[in-house]
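Entry under discussion copied across for reference:
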Amino acid sequence: MHLFRHPSVAAPKDLVSSVLRSPDMLFQFSTAEWDMLVRQARSAGLLARIHNVLTQHKMVEVIPAEARWHFESAVTLAIKQQLAVRWEVEQIRAALGGLDCPLVVLKGAAYVTAQLPAARGRLFNDIDILVPRNLLNQAEAALMLAGWHTTGLSPYDERYYRRWMHEIPPMQHLHRASVIDVHHAILPDTARYFPDPQKLLNRIVPAGDDMPGVYVFSAEDRILHSATHLFHDGELPHGLRDLTDLDLLLRHEAGTPLFWPRLVARAEELQLGRSLYYALRYTQYFLDTPIPPTVWHDLRSVTPNAVLLSIMDSIFTRVLAPAHASCDDAFSSIARQAAYVRAHWLRMPAHLLIPHLIHKAFISPYLDDSTPKPA
């Protein structure tokens, strides 16, 4: 099994991942390249994360004065958002205090509450939590009493969420406008692969001493959930940001004894081996994430064949680049459409998928649907 490395000609316009791989290249940047880096990093939600990398390398002074305020503003926003996330998690914990289950926070909120390196420079759209399916109605009712209500979905999307999705419709606070995604699983029941939520809940760990009553997934499960979310989502405006999350999660755990064998074994147990394979392949491609050769050998049973791998590479090397016109080529639009269809194909069987895609393509655009997160 060969290691897939980014060739020198790959994505030459993607300055963000290039800088994250090799910050020293900034010493040679022209004014025009700095301008383009700021534009791409803003579209990818990675201005603050780049600033954090430069801080770690003691290179902040390399940022020219005319660009510095863009990075510093993003850092200020990231810090404020993280403080807000911690406060909102406390409000959610209080709201759900009557439920006979722990509060489990996911993805970005988990990185913040557990004080992981992946939280540094991370921006947020919402807070994700996991609730056992049998307590879903009680959790929704408790959150409504605390001020969160489902946002204005079309009747079709409301029905779609509640019947087929692994979460209820997003809930937004009436006064603070904070958004919660309440999950009962990490993939829909109809998905081709369905990790048992109870297996995930069986391995949750406390977020930290300063967040009593708040729990997060185990280290392996955090990585697998991030990979699953990224490679089962058809719309990836922040795909590179999520890929940097994975890179930081992997680097943070890589030195733990037996981490890699445990990660591969857990992926197999949860039916997420293929998602893990793609996560490792593209973190290495974009970010030079160090992956031991033995891991590729251990993942050989879920490695796609050469034809499929070539197709996936042509899709994901495009859709995971910053969502900016400067990173596009003639095939980027086709790649995004392919990623969208693939994600839905993995989520539901054909007899459900085809009517859904027809509805979203030909009916939904003509409806007044103001939802911030369509199905």
